[in-house]
Amino acid sequence: MQKEVVTVEFEQKDMDFLLNCIPKTGEPNPIQEWLPDNNWNMVQRLIEIPRFMTFSNNMVSDAPGRFKDWFNALNPETENLPLEWKALKDLPFQKLLVLRCLRPDRISIALTNFIRKTLPHGDSFCDMDGTNPFSYILEDTFNAVVNDPSIPIFFVLSKGSDPTQDVLNFGEKLGFVEANKKYFQISLGAEMEEQAIAKLN
Q: Domains of the chain: which residue ranges?
């Protein structure tokens, strides 16, 4: 987006807000019956962006019931916002900022949808490796870097995932576990750094 490889209307302060929204406290929440204070505080930060200057006033004074319905929707990322804010359907990046404030639980799904529609071949990017078993991905990745042992492979894990057994099985398949003694498993807790460095060396 910054290099204009894809055409998306946004300003740097929009990107900064999406990545680092810091709630602004001090303004009483008049709609706390349905909107939690933390969400309200994020809206108070959002209205510092000129495009959104009237947003909180619209929520409180002009259409609180309609905003409440949108807030409570199962899939608000696919629903039009009330009033003139429905125009954000044509400004998907700016709609992400509203979701960031009001429904942060839906931001991952909304970002995925945004990537699908915005990036060239966005579906392929979002679904990459989605149908392949982990063992296949591990072997494919290893084969891509096997000629340069200085390249590490990192696993970015979601809650509940554990690649340990798959890595061990793959190490056994390559003969690293028994014969060559090149497989070491170390839990990186307190005072384990020296042991890990020694094994890497």
A: 12-126, 134-200
